[in-house]
């Protein structure tokens, strides 16, 4: 074999340089992300300066608008996100979601997600852990108590994004034990409803306080799933529920607005049930009941310390309690309820349900509305719902 | 200068091949996207087969779940998306949104968006047009009447994602003239509220039917904007409003669920006002009034054709009319209302507003709720609101 010609080698180098420039974005001097594409440089301090080169100007504008007192504080917080849709590697079937990109097929889901996120915002520190939290060994590993940026402190919040009961119960147990505030989230098997729930051990219901059917009857979850059938999933529903989760995370961490204790989403009719969820004193979860006792003692202590002349303010410090806005609850159809129960969502039908508004009898030519005075009461208790589900 | 050494050239080639492989994802045989990364191959027909290599299995599962009759139909539709946040090139300040990636800085926004989207789903055909729709010349160009996949037919839907009144009014005029169904969307200047609106010329209110303050008083929008101040923007709020827009687009095109005529989002308290929006017979927009007349004639014709024994069904074919669910409307705070009005959102406070639910006096140990019978009426008419805004 003869030596390669210098001209051929130089031509090959020019070709490769061209391909590499194309792959990386032509003529860019930006640092490369791990995908080999140019990303932006890290930014040491968040600025509110209105210049094109500042990616934070529109978030920092929230301060000037009077929405958030101190947006920079976001940099001090640590959030543990549990679950990116099951342990495993990224498959094409996951590619209907923006999180995973085709060239990442075969990577572990946590690594693929971390790489995508790091390329979007290099200022965030990502730490990945890839294991099953539901086995006993791994549960010991599931340490959220040391994850803070401040040495030895717990994380500021846990976000549950898992897709099964067992994992939710593992997170619930860990958070009750540690007194860790967390958000639970989920989308139904038919992809057209979802919810988020805010859980403060002792103060709000834990995940076991109002147990869904599968957990309550100790049925093996796997026996409920149909063989060879995959659940539906809609990026729109997932995006909206994820939006609710992150928006309420921002409200909780940055202390603006009101955090919703339970917020549901029914995509078919754009209905959003919202309600406070109180803890169950007879909850099966040992640490939940202990946390409830501690919380009640704390409330009693605070009340005792109040000056006698002051009006009685119970739960004075519960910033994120009930909302001052209207809440309306209406029944879902039976199919939806059953799908919801099977996929681990809190049943959204409770006792004492009203329609807040009836359609006016005649079409009106303007945009003004006159609600009917007679609200129709939908009677369906949680007990009845449980009976219906058990008979299925 | 001496000739380069063959060994050096070969070493350089090996380095470049390594860098290129890293930039493109190692050892992949997938087709390259325009960013030089491996994408997935096009898929000729959508399949519901549950295999890891099928990115459509979880969307097609919506058929088996009884949600959507024919998901494949999505491939026949053409949607015109107007606006990706202002004409211009992509700047770092846009990078707080997932749509634009750091290596795209300097591209036009429509091209950057199209490239990102094409790399996510190569099965969608993207056609980009980059111009200002509000100038007369460009308005003539703004042809949505020939955009269908079927030669000579109009697009199936127009989505307005523009950020100013002038552009909304241009789209409104074009759609009224063409009888084109469209969705309008927007996020407030303070980034914590937003809305979508469904507009069917003649059947629902057009964008000029209930004119917001700026349009009504013919004020130049630019004089309302403060110098050197940029509006706040939150990816969460934008993501949720975009989710509502696309979810309702899917419901409209694939004929499932109910399309919301007006759906608002208040992030501070997770409140979602929803209402039908009827056309104004005295609307200033010439084609809107013409469309209303045609629609009323059509309704009358249908009514006349009904068999005499049948019950009177007015608007029989209006699939996406009012919903059968509760609707509750409550007032927003004054600041929010004013920001909303300035950024072009329909005022969400209307006459006759009730609280559907009052917080129970005592905390309950379970998750069951008992709504109070006494609903407090919030009295604030649209007229009062307009007066308040005019006095600002």
Automatic annotation (TrEMBL), chains A, B:
It holds the Pfam family ThiF. GO terms for molecular function: ATP binding; metal ion binding; UFM1 activating enzyme activity. Coiled coil: none annotated. It comes from the Eukaryota. Residues 90-283 form the THIF-type NAD/FAD binding fold domain. Residues 359-379 are annotated as: Disordered. It comes from Tigriopus californicus (Marine copepod). InterPro entries: ThiF/MoeB/HesA, ThiF_NAD_FAD-bd, Ubiquitin-activating_enz. GO terms for cellular component: cytosol. Keywords: ATP-binding, Metal-binding, Nucleotide-binding, Ubl conjugation pathway, Zinc. GO terms for biological process: protein ufmylation. This is Ubiquitin-like modifier-activating enzyme 5. Transmembrane segments: none annotated. Belongs to the ubiquitin-activating E1 family. UBA5 subfamily.
